[in-house]
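Sharing a chain and its predicted structure for anyone who wants a worked example. Both blocks are below, sequence first, tokens second.
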Amino acid sequence: MNESQIDLAHAVALGSIGDEDQRAVREILEGNDPVLRADFNKEVQLTKQALTLFASASATPPPASLREGLLARIAEEPAPAPAQSRPRGPVHPGNTRRHVRDC
């Protein structure tokens, strides 16, 4: 695997790939190189495992006062009014556009 493919595997593990990267991943996974496909999948899995370990090692529970404070603030706020539902008529293809007037 080259550096850009390794970076791509890391992006996949993080869940942060765009459309162009998705095409590149698809090319790797659907390509004719089983070694590249296996190496790519292994890199994604190893990166996910490393991220999981890092997250669990650095996680700290929030202070108890945070929960108490949030619950107290929620209790102080008035409850939202229930949403009123209005019956909706059928949508016709000609009704879906908004008309904008020239100013």
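Comments welcome. The mean pLDDT is 84.
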